[in-house]
Every structure is written in structure tokens, then in C-alpha cells.
Write a structure and sequence with these properties.
The protein has 1246 residues and is α+β, with helices and mostly antiparallel strands. Helix 24 packs parallel to helix 27.
Length: 1246
């Protein structure tokens, strides 16, 4: 029979492979902390920008007169600004040179004011410098001419270009005098010396001045007659022309040996026309020099010199060329700030190659007017190289400043990125460049930061204005990436961009409001894309955050009601976003509140209370923040509720008797608050509010001290039992969250609760009241008094209020004060106050401090989460490439393949052992040790060689092959609770530990075997069962996990079986058990039959079909047992049999088609635990009488274990829990003496 059982089992069982199995609780919200990306210091944004306003062109040529300290060669360089000064009269030549020099500088900064000073005197220079500084909105003092005087006249910041021999002397003197000036100011305590009665000059710091010098201290300018005399100025102002001439003068190998200086001067085209040869060379030159600077300079210096002022950027870009050319003539240009040497950078070879390819066409273009210019392949090749890098490069890249500059990959990487930026504005390469740029940005925040440091921002900003439709998806993607760091679904990205625009930015909110963003978002809330729904809700939450106009626009569009549908969304992120939006909706600090606003806020708060038991901590955190905003809006009312609840908590629950089904009869003294249901399902919010509006207000019999509470505007609408019910419901929701199994959620709620309770305790002081009437007046019934049994919770009918008042002895009709419930035991006489007194009116002989402050000194409620910042991380992380678990070459994928191969091998090897289990002994003790506490639950890991042993509040992990303890985890359940259920989630892959405690809480843990407590992570925690019923004998929380479907079944000391979906973290359905006792064991079939079996404390075994409606899903009740059910087991397969065992010692086998058992095994009574192997013909029974009996399903005794092995082995204790290995024939048993053992079949003889 055992062989038939084994064969049938493997023929009928259709197990999913490990690759097909669901990996539950493995989303980003489970693997990482809910916090935003680390703030990256954005060096590309300069706090202080520099702009060239005025330019002085000072030419001291003295045409025809050579300087006395320089002996010129003959022939020597004569050209000045490409003009021969000896070709005309000295004055005309001087004017022509000055005019040409101004044109050359205007090419780089056309908007600056230029002033020429030709062969000036000292007074003229003084006057010129003073006027320039005055035009720059600053005044300086001037003194007799020297470098020191020049600093004084020019002030700071300024740019100096020295094109003369021994120019380095000026630079050194400038630095020396700058330091001297700063020392003088520091020692004298003033900003300068008063000279000539002029105003005090600003201190000129060398750090704020830029200097460019043609050569060093002891160097002369080159006198080559083939070069211009102002070679340095030519490099700075006409770089392409001088670069071509210098290239021809270098007698190195060239593609075109016949190009002469005369031909170079005839290069066709315009510098600003990229379609021509000259324009393309200028474009390539800009790309190469910027790339050299970005690879060489520190980031902050690059931003200062190359990304602020056009003239400064052009001068320094051309300075790199000047360094290369002038070093070939034994001159070393000097700059301040000092730049690292760049004249040997490898990118100059690319420049030489570009010149070769262009000059190769020059003779043909000059000879044939119809010849077409062939564009250089420079940018195309660079884009191809960048594409290759992206294809084979890893996303795990360090920032560029951390990469060794000597590495070719580093240089190549930086170069290709920069080239891609410069191609963006080209219509020819734009689409391809944008695509590659998007792929690069998708590598992560570090890539975005690098791109921003290059200067991508203004490029993309300009492209956003383009009307080309083919660019829009790429631009939206790139813009989303930029926004995700600096502060594909394209609609989702567009929603993200809009959200970032309105995030804490009032002008953005106003623009969005004018652009009907609210209505546009509301129209798409039902979209099938979960990420889009999430960002639409976040966008709405940011639009009306602290912006009342947008809030009322949302009210007109019923935005809050439309967001209600997202509270039941399948995606936890969407639900959290909806709660976030509703929280900001009610968290608007409005000075003047009206009845309509109060109604809306309370309705939203009441609706939010319905998600208090959401399965995702992500949602509950946002709910806590949202409810805290409501508490802050109605602080006084909630303080009164807290005081009332405090009084009720003094009444303890007493167990009066035990019902036949095992339930306890609980007697509660005192009055009970309404509503009893936290979710407030007794009445709708609308009916409550309508009733509150229509009912007359009755003054509360007891009111808190108004001078101790924060004063709010009086509102007659906030009155009546309906509003009191809302406040109590919201408060109970917060109290429930204050007991949340997730510590972070719990601590947030406790902060709110403690703040309100502290204010309630300081305000609840007795007040002396004088009776002014001889008629005895007793207090009316509190709004929290118990309602009649046949009355729904909510606003009672008016005649009931009158009846309560009549019975209370007042003899008159009175009003409730809506929100203020009883806070003390003292009473106030009805005749003491006016009948129509406004809420918190001072009343007679009462002194109230009008200051809007808390006398208790407590702080305002300020709690927040980083859910919004965490959501932004989605766009900062790669989204265009394969995830790590999908990439076949990733480490994660290879590790997973190894695990799955190992799992398959373990299953195959176990089959032979399973086939022998029905007739083999199972009593070889392979492991025994004493646990730290009495084991409640014990579980084998299916594929690792350890067992998990659950104690009262923790789980120990024992390596049963080596016999050592390898870990322990504290479950964090409440002190008065214990762990009653445990299982492994995703044991085939990354294992999680599921722990359920008898208060209905479920916690999932990751890295349970970590050596440090910091390594152990709480993945999620939620309240699987919320209404645990106290019984004399409790089963606690009973769980059953279906790995194939990702469904968690929860029951126990309740009358329902609750199904949770692990993917959506929502409650799927509640199945009524129909039993008068608790559920003790559950089993289910996850392979399509939807059959669910529950064993109960009254001995019944109940079968449910979860596909049917809750009222019809119980299809069968098996009643042959008479004692507590210890185990129900469902064999897998299409005709799986049911096995049930009770503490009475009877084990019954059932055919699910019949109500009578097909076979029964009658064993000894006193069983405490029964386990049935899923794949082998073996079952184990643990007894209170200190033994374990092993049977096959035919009833044959295979083994009886009474003693531990070894010399003088002691008697085992009473069995508290047992478990079979899911595949191997191994049995783990825990006893009440805290010992745990593992038993195996005898090893097979070879």
C-alpha cells in the first residue's frame, strides 16, 4: 500500500518549478527603506554667477617705435589683429587694429560694453578703469598708477589679459599686492585707505579675479615672422584661424601636404554656420576643448570658468589652444586661477584628425564652386563609441572624480559623455544623442549628477521648447531623470514632472491650478497603469498642499470622493499615495474655517479610518500622518475624546462564564463608547453629518477647562452625537495604530496619542460649580452612553434624546455640545450658562487666556514620512535596462540558478527516502539540544539544514547536522502574547520568516541568520486578525501559507477565516466558520480546487469552497471527532484525501465527496501534536505522556520514541510541537522541558 501511495502521489501531484513559484514580499517597498535618495551636492548650480559687463581694450603699440628692453629679430612678427601696422600711417593702423580687436572680442560676448584706449596716458587709464567699475555698479578709490593702483581702480571681480613679454611678472605682482591689500584691511579693520577724499574701495581678492598672461616671468614672445605679433591674443580671439596656420606650419605628417598658408586663409564659411567648413571646425573645436577642460579641471573650477560667463568660457577654452601653440615656441602661458597642463591631452589628436579631414577637401572646394562639403564623421564616431560604452559598461560606476585619470576607460567614459551633450543641439544627430543620453541617465543618480556637471541643464531646457513631436518622449524621460535627482511610461513621467514643479513651489501650484491639472489628474485615476495612478495621486496631494485655492477647486471637482476609490487599489503604493493626497487635502492651515470645510475634513477623516488595518505598513504610515493632521485641525475636540476614553479604560473586562463552544462571556462595567466598530460602518458619514446639521445641540454636562485648551473658532455645526461619533472613530483608529505590529508605524501613532493625552491630562482638573437654582439639576446622559440594542450607531432619533433628558431629571429639552465629551467627574449646572452659549464661551465669572498657546508646554504635532521622496527614487534609478534578476549575466541571477539547481537535487534525492518511509523505522536521533525556551512551533527549512524553533517572543535557529545554534531573532510581539504560528516564505529563493502571535499580528523577517541585530530586517508587519475573542483554551493565531498563489490564510480565536493576498497586501475575503469554537488547524489546496479545510476546537472539520459567496462557501461539516482537532491534512492531487486527528487519539481518513470517514485509527488519548508528511506514507503523534509514536497510514507502528539516545538517556518531555521535513523523512520534535530533537530513518546500507 505504501508503494501505491507513493506512486499515486508523484503521478497526480503537479508541483510548480522553482522558476514558476511566486516570490512574495519582494517588492522595492520590502527590500529597501522608505526614504528618499541621498542628497547629492549639485556643483553645477553656482550660487554666485559672474557676468562680464564692460571690456577695456588697452593697446600700447607705439607703432614705429620698438620697446627699449627688447631687441627684435629681422625679420620678425609684425601682424597685430591680422593687420600689418606698417602698411599705413601709424594713427590709422592703430585705429584699425583697435577696431579689429573689438570685433574679435565681441564674437564671444556681444552684449558687453567695449571701450578702446589707444596708446593712453596714465590719467586716461585711470579714468577708463574708474568708469568701468562704476558701470559695474561698484565704486573704487584710485591712486597713482601701478599694479597696486590697477587693482584699486578695477576692483573685483575683473578679468585681465596680458599680451606682452615677461607677462608673468605682472601676475606675480598682482598676487603679491592682493595679499598685501588683504593684510592691510585685516590689520586696520577698515576696507581701505582714504585717499583723495574718494570713497573706500572694495577689497580686490586674487580669488575673484581672472588673469591670462602670454608667457612666464623670464620669457619673450615669439618673433617668428610667419606668426602674428599678438599670437596670444590671436589664440584667445581667433582660435580657428591661428590653429589652421599653426597646423600648417608644423611640418608633421598630414593627409594633405599641399595646403599652404594662403589656402588656409581662404577656408570657406562662417563661424556661426555649422553647415560650412569653418563653422564645423569651430563646433568640433568647442566640443574638444570643453571635453579636455571637463576631464582635467576640478568640478567646481570647471563650473566657474566654463559654465557662467560666455566671454570667460570662450577665453579659457581658447587658452587651452594658446597653451598648446605657445609651448611649441618656448612660451608658457599663465592663468589665474591656475590650470593643470592640457597641451598633451589625447583629445588634441582628435582635433588634428578633424583638421586633416577638412583640409583634405579645401583644394577641391576652392577650385570647383559646385563642389559639396562633406561633413566630418567626428560626432557620429563619438556617438557610436558612446553607444558601445553603454552596451558593455556596467551601471556600477564610481563618480568621475574617484576614477584614476590615467585609466583609458575613465578618460573614454568622460569624453564620450561630454561629446553627447554637445551634439544635442544639432538637428542631424539630435535624436540619436537624446536616446543615448537617456540611456546614460538611466544608469542612476550618479549619472544624472555627472550630466548636470557637464552642463546638460540649459541644453535640455532649450530643447523642451522644440516643437518636434519625435523628441517629446525622450525629453520627458530625460527631464524626469533630472528632476528626480535635482530636487517606459511617458504619461507617468509627465505626471512626475508636474509633481516636481508644484512641490513646495507656490508659483508652480498657481500655474498648475490655472492649467486645470486637478481635473486632468482626476480623469485618469482609473488608468490601468499603477505607477501612473500613484503619481496622479501624489501630484494632486502636492498641488493643494498648503494651497487653499487648489483645495477648493478639488472640492468642486469632488476630488476627495474620487480618491476614495484608490483606497482599495490593488497596489499598496497607490493606496499610500491616495492617503497621502487625502492627508494634504485636510492638512491646510486656514485661519477662517467654515461649516462646509469642517464637514469635508471630518468626512475624509471618517473614510480614512476604514483603512486602519491595511496590510501594508506603507499605507498605515501615511494614514497616521493624515489622521494627525485631522487631530491638529480639531485638537480641542480630540483632547476631550482622549479624556473620555481614559475614564472608560478604568473599567476592566471580567470573564463571567464560559460558553459551551469555548467562548468566554465577558462582563464590562461602566458605559461603553460609541461607535463600537472602529471603521464606523454602523452609519454612513453623510447620514451622520446630515443628522448633526438637523439635530439641535445639547450642552455637555461636563466640559474640559477652556483655559487649558487651544481656542478655536466657535462653530455651531460641530455639535451633536454624530460628530462625537466621528471623533471617537478617528481616535480609536489612532489607538489601534498605536498597537501596530510595525514599530515605525506604532511609534508615529504614539507620538500623536501621547501629545493629545498629555493635553487631556493637564486640562482634566475638577471645577467648583455653585448651584443657583433650588431645582435639582442632574447632568444629561453623555453622548457616549450605550444606545438601545435595536438602534444603529450614529445620531439617535430626536425622541430618544428627549427621553434621555427626561430620565436624567432635567425636565427640559437641551443641546449636546458636539465634540466635547466628559473629561472630568464634575458637573455644570444648566442654569449657570446660557442655553445658546457658543462653544468654549467664557461664561460667567470665568477668566480665560485668549492667547492661542498651549499652557502645558507641549509641542505641536509634527510627524512625516519620506514616502514622496522614496517614490521619486523610481525615476532616479535605472528603468530602461533589465533588472538584476532578469539579466542572465548578473550575480543575482547566477545565485538564483544555483539555488534552484540545489533545490531540485534535494527533492530528487529525497524521493528514494520517501518511498521507504512507510515500512522503515524513524527513531535515529541525529540532533538534540536544549532550547532557551519552551518550543511553541518548530519548522524545517526545506533546502537548508536548520530548524526554526519559536518560543514565546523569539525564534531560535539550530543547524541540525552540525548541532549548533546559528541565530536568534526577537519577534517584537507584545509582552502578554506568544508566537503560535510560523512558516517560511519563499524558501526556494530568498527566505523570509513568517511569525504570527496570538494577538493576531503577523511579522515577516529577512536575514534571520545575520550575526548582528542590525542585519535582521523586518520586511512587513500587519494585523492579520483584528478581533481575537478571549477563550478558556486558546489556539492563538493559526496561519496557512500558500506559496503557489501567494495567499495567507489566517484564523484562530475568531469566527472567520481571513484570506490575505501577499502581492497586493490586502484582505481578499472573510469566510465565516459557522462554528461556536476557535479554529485550531487549517489546510488548503492551491492547485485549482479552491478547497479549504478547517479543524475546530469543538471537534468538527469544516470544508469550504473559497470560490463561493461567504454565506454559501461552507460546503461540508464532518462531525465524527469529539475533541480538539490537532491536525487537518489535505493530500495533494485531484483526488486528495483528507486526514484529521484530534486530541482524543482518533485519526480519521475522509473522502471529500462523503460526510463519513472511510477509515479510522484509534490511538491512545492525550495527544498534544500530530504531524503528517506531505510526500511520504508516515505520520507522527506526540503525547502528553512523554513519547512520540510513528505510524504509516495503514496504522502500523513504525517506531516509538520515549528516551533520548546515549548512555543513560533521559526520558523525553511532554511533546509541545512537531514538524516533518517538507521532503526528507526527518522529524523535529519539541517538548515542554525545552529540549528539541531531530529524528531520521536509519542510513541505507550500501
Amino acid at each position: 500500500m505504501a508503494e501505491e501511495f507513493f506512486n499515486a502521489l508523484f503521478e497526480e501531484e503537479d508541483e510548480l518549478t522553482d522558476w514558476q513559484l511566486l516570490v512574495a514580499y519582494n517588492g522595492q517597498r520590502h527590500r529597501e527603506k522608505i526614504q528618499g535618495s541621498k542628497k547629492v551636492t549639485q556643483t553645477w548650480r553656482m550660487k554666485e554667477r559672474m557676468k562680464t559687463v564692460s571690456v577695456a581694450l588697452v593697446l600700447c603699440l607705439n607703432v614705429g617705435v620698438d620697446p627699449p628692453d627688447v631687441v627684435k629679430t629681422s625679420p620678425c612678427a609684425r601682424l597685430e589683429c591680422w593687420i600689418d601696422p606698417l602698411a599705413s600711417s601709424p594713427q590709422k593702423a592703430l585705429e584699425a587694429i583697435g577696431s579689429n580687436l573689438q570685433k574679435q572680442y565681441e564674437r564671444w560676448q556681444p552684449r558687453a560694453r567695449y571701450k578702446q584706449s589707444l596708446d593712453p596716458t596714465v590719467d586716461e587709464i585711470k579714468k577708463l578703469c574708474t568708469s568701468l567699475r562704476r558701470n559695474a555698479k561698484s565704486y573704487t578709490q584710485y591712486i597713482p598708477l601701478s599694479v597696486y593702483d590697477l587693482q584699486t581702480w578695477m576692483g573685483s571681480p575683473s578679468i585681465y589679459v596680458y599680451d606682452c613679454s615677461n607677462a608673468g611678472i605682472i601676475v606675480e605682482s598682482f598676487k603679491q599686492f592682493s595679499v598685501q591689500r588683504e593684510n592691510e584691511v585685516e590689520s586696520s579693520g577698515i576696507n581701505g585707505n582714504q585717499r583723495f577724499g574718494s570713497p573706500t574701495p572694495a577689497v580686490s581678492s586674487v580669488k575673484n579675479c581672472i588673469q591670462l598672461a602670454a608667457c612666464g616671468t623670464n620669457e619673450l614672445l615669439p618673433m617668428n615672422p610667419e606668426l602674428p605679433a599678438d599670437l596670444f591674443t590671436s589664440c584667445l580671439t581667433t582660435p580657428i584661424k591661428i590653429a589652421l596656420r599653426w597646423y600648417v606650419l608644423q611640418n608633421t605628417g598630414r593627409l594633405v601636404p599641399n595646403v599652404t598658408l594662403e589656402l588656409v586663409d581662404k577656408v570657406p564659411g562662417q563661424l556661426n554656420d555649422r553647415r560650412t567648413m569653418l563653422g564645423e571646425l569651430n563646433w568640433i573645436f568647442t566640443a574638444i576643448t570643453d571635453t579636455i577642460a571637463w576631464n582635467t579641471l576640478p568640478r567646481d573650477l570647471f563650473q566657474k570658468l566654463f559654465r557662467q560667463d560666455l566671454l570667460v568660457a570662450s577665453l579659457f577654452r581658447n587658452f587651452l589652444l594658446a597653451e598648446r601653440i605657445m609651448r611649441s615656441y618656448n612660451c608658457t602661458p599663465i592663468s589665474g586661477p591656475k590650470l593643470p597642463p592640457t597641451y598633451q591631452h589625447p583629445m588634441w589628436q582628435a582635433w588634428d584628425m578633424a583638421l586633416d579631414l577638412c583640409l583634405q577637401q579645401l583644394p577641391r572646394l576652392l577650385e570647383d564652386d559646385n563642389a559639396q562639403f562633406q561633413h566630418s564623421p567626428f560626432f557620429t564616431e563619438q556617438l557610436t563609441a558612446f553607444q558601445v560604452w553603454l552596451s558593455y559598461g556596467s551601471e556600477a560606476r564610481n563618480p568621475p572624480e574617484q576614477l584614476p585619470i590615467v585609466l583609458q576607460a575613465s578618460y573614454r567614459y568622460h569624453t564620450l559623455l561630454f561629446m553627447n551633450m554637445l551634439v544635442l543641439l544639432s538637428q542631424v544627430h539630435r535624436l540619436r544623442a537624446l536616446d543615448l543620453l537617456g540611456r546614460f541617465l538611466d544608469l542612476g543618480p550618479w549619472a544624472v549628477s555627472l550630466a548636470l556637471s557637464v552642463g546638460i541643464f540649459p541644453y535640455v531646457l532649450k530643447l523642451l521648447q522644440s516643437s518636434a513631436r519625435e523628441l517629446r518622449p525622450l525629453l520627458v524621460f530625460i527631464w524626469a531623470k533630472i528632476l528626480s535627482v535635482d530636487s517606459g511610461e511617458h504619461r507617468t513621467m509627465a505626471a512626475f514632472v508636474l509633481t516636481m514643479i508644484v512641490n513646495n513651489y507656490r508659483q508652480g501650484q498657481e500655474a498648475a491650478l490655472q492649467g486645470n491639472v486637478i481635473s486632468c489628474c482626476l480623469e485618469q485615476l482609473t488608468d490601468s497603469n499603477a505607477l501612473l495612478r500613484q503619481w496622479l495621486a501624489l501630484c494632486l496631494g502636492k498641488v493643494w498642499s498648503s494651497f487653499d485655492n487648489a483645495r477648493w477647486c478639488g472640492v468642486r471637482d469632488s476630488a476627495h470622493e474620487k480618491l476614495y476609490t484608490l483606497l482599495t487599489d490593488p497596489s499598496p503604493e497607490v493606496r499610500a499615495a491616495a492617503v497621502f493626497a487625502l492627508g494634504t487635502f485636510i492638512n491646510n492651515s486656514v485661519t477662517e474655517r467654515n461649516d462646509h470645510a469642517n464637514n469635508i475634513d471630518l468626512a475624509v477623516g471618517m473614510t480614512l479610518s476604514s483603512v486602519v488595518h491595511d496590510g501594508s505598513p506603507l499605507v498605515r504610515k501615511e494614514l497616521t500622518v493624515a489622521l494627525s493632521a485631522l487631530v491638529a485641525q480639531f485638537e480641542t475636540q480630540f483632547v476631550a475624546v482622549a479624556a473620555q476614553m481614559y475614564e472608560e479604560e478604568r473599567n476592566a473586562a471580567v470573564v463571567a462564564a464560559e460558553a459551551p463552544g469555548g467562548w468566554n462571556v465577558v462582563a464590562i462595567s461602566g458605559t461603553a463608547s460609541i461607535p463600537q466598530n472602529v471603521s464606523g460602518s454602523g452609519t454612513s458619514v453623510d447620514s451622520m453629518l446630515e443628522s448633526a446639521d438637523s439635530s439641535s445641540s445639547l450642552e455637555s454636562s461636563i466640559s474640559p477647562q477652556p483655559d487649558r485648551l487651544k481656542r478655536v473658532q466657535s462653530n455651531p455645526i460641530i455639535s451633536g452625537l454624530a460628530y462625537s461619533s466621528i471623533y471617537i472613530t478617528v481616535w480609536k483608529s489612532l489607538v489601534s495604530i498605536g498597537r501596530d505590529p510595525n514599530k515605525e508605524v506604532r511609534d508615529m501613532a504614539k507620538k500623536v496619542l501621547n501629545t493629545v493625552r498629555l493635553k487631556a491630562s493637564t486640562s482634566a482638573k475638577p471645577t467648583q460649580v455653585l448651584q443657583t437654582s433650588s431645582i435639582p439639576h442632574s447632568a444629561p446622559s453623555s453622548p457616549s452612553n450605550r444606545l438601545p440594542v435595536n438602534m444603529n450607531q450614529g445620531t439617535p432619533p430626536q425622541n430618544h434624546i428627549e427621553d434621555m433628558m427626561t430620565r436624567s431629571g432635567t425636565g427640559m429639552k437641551r443641546d449636546f455640545t458636539s465634540p466635547r465629551l466628559s473629561a472630568t467627574s464634575s458637573t455644570l449646572s444648566a442654569s449657570q450658562f446660557s442655553r445658546h452659549r457658543k462653544m468654549f464661551d467664557k461664561g460667567p465669572n470665568t477668566i480665560v487666556d485668549d492667547k492661542d498657546s498651549d499652557s502645558s508646554g507641549t509641542k505641536k504635532l509634527e510627524i512625516s514620512t519620506e514616502f514622496f521622496e522614496w517614490s521619486c527614487r523610481h525615476f532616479a534609478q535605472p528603468v530602461m535596462q533589465l533588472s538584476e534578476d532578469q539579466d542572465p549575466e548578473s550575480v543575482l541571477r547566477l545565485e538564483r540558478e544555483y539555488r534552484f539547481l540545489r533545490n531540485s537535487q534535494i527533492r530528487v534525492e529525497a524521493r528514494e527516502e520517501q518511498s521507504r518511509a512507510g515500512f522503515n523505522r524513524l527513531d535515529v536521533e541525529v540532533f538534540v539540544n536544549k532550547n532557551t525556551g519552551v518550543p511553541n512551533v518548530i519548522k524545517f527549512h526545506p533546502y537548508e539544514s536548520y530548524v526554526a524553533v519559536a518560543e514565546r517572543d523569539g525564534v531560535s535557529f539550530w543547524e541540525w547536522i552540525q548541532g549548533v545554534k546559528i541565530g536568534y531573532i526577537y519577534n517584537e510581539n507584545a509582552k502578554s502574547t506568544r508566537i503560535t504560528s510560523m512558516d517560511f516564505i519563499n524558501p526556494h529563493d530568498n527566505t523570509l520568516l513568517l511569525c504570527g502571535s496570538d494577538d493576531g499580528a503577523v511579522r515577516l523577517w529577512r536575514n534571520c541568520l545575520s550575526e548582528t541585530n542590525e542585519g535582521k530586517e523586518l520586511v512587513t508587519a500587519f494585523q492579520a486578525i483584528t478581533e481575537m475573542i478571549p477563550t478558556a483554551r486558546r489556539s492563538g493565531l493559526v496561519l496557512d501559507w500558500e506559496q503557489e498563489t501567494g495567499t495567507l490564510l489566517a484564523s484562530g480565536d475568531v469566527r472567520i477565516i481571513r484570506l490575505w493576498d501577499a502581492q497586493t497586501e490586502t484582505k481578499v475575503q472573510d469566510i465565516p466558520t459557522g462554528a461556536d469554537s476557535c479554529v485550531t488547524s487549517m489546510a488548503s489546496d492551491s492547485f485549482g480546487r479552491s478547497l479549504l479545510i478547517a479543524g475546530c476546537g469543538d471537534g468538527t472539520v469544516r470544508l469550504y469552497d473559497r470560490r463561493l459567496a461567504p454565506s454559501e462557501c461552507r460546503v461540508m461539516t464532518l462531525r465524527e471527532h469529539s475533541r480538539w482537532i490537532l491536525k487537518v491534512h489535505l493530500q495533494r492531487g485531484s483526488e486528495g484525501k483528507i486526514i484529521s486527528a484530534s486530541s482524543g487519539g482518533d485519526i480519521r481518513f475522509w473522502d471529500p465527496r462523503f460526510t463519513e470517514s472511510v477509515r479510522t485509527l484509534n490511538l491512545q488519548q492525550g495527544l498534544t501534536s500530530v504531524e503528517i508528511h506531505k510526500h511520504a506514507d508516515v505520520l507522527a503523534c506526540g503525547s502528553l505522556n512523554q513519547y512520540v509514536a510513528i505510524y504509516n497510514q495503514s496504522g502500523d507502528v513504525l517506531s516509538t520514541i520515549k528516551y533520548h539516545e546515549g548512555f543513560l538517556g533521559q526520558r523525553i518531555g511532554s511533546i509541545s510541537c512537531m514538524a516533518f521535513h517538507p521532503y526528507m523523512v526527518k522529524l523535529a520534535a519539541g517538548s515542554t522541558d525545552s529540549y528539541i530533537s531531530v529524528y531520521s530513518t536509519p542510513p541505507r546500507r550500501s
